[in-house]
Amino acid sequence: MKRTTSRRQSRLGILFIIIVVVIVVAITMVRSSNLRAKSERLAVTERQLEQQIESAKKETEALEEKEAYMQTKKYIEDEAKDKLGLVYPDEIVIEPSPN
Predict the structure, then answer these.
(1) Which of 3, 43, 94, 96 is most buried by a 10 A CB count?
(2) Using CA atoms, how far apart are residues 13 and 21, in angstroms rounded to an integer?
(3) Is the CA virtual torsion 70, 76, 82, 83 positive or negative?
(4) Tell me: the pLDDT tens digits for 3-35?
(5) Contact 24/32 with Cβ under 8 angstroms?
(6) pTM of the prediction?
């Protein structure tokens, strides 16, 4: 009687261990899948942020060029001509007719 009881307990113990191992493997697989999905989402976000950084760098360069241009005599002359209608005494201004 003791042998059958100990064999049953042994089999139940092994079965319990197998069930626990299967559960641990299943949980590990699910978490691994979740981590892969999160990694892919983060990679997409990283690419988007890199594109935004590149765009911001280009915009910064354009603004720096505009700032440098705005500090030149040519800019002042252009603005005086465009906004104030000023011209040099030796210049001839030709305007299109209103027709």
Answers:
(1) 43
(2) 12
(3) positive
(4) 667 888 888 999 999 999 999 999 999 999 999
(5) no
(6) 0.56
Q: Rounded to an integer, what distance in angstroms lies between the CA atom of residue 57 and that of residue 9?
A: 70
Q: Are 71 and 77 in contact (CB under 8 A)?
A: no
| Cβ contact 86:80 at 8 Å | yes
- Alpha carbon 38 to its chain centroid, in Å, reads 15
- Tokens 């007719």: give the residue: 97
Which sign, positive or negative, has the C-alpha torsion 27, 33, 37, 42?
positive
Residue whose structure tokens are 């040519």: 74
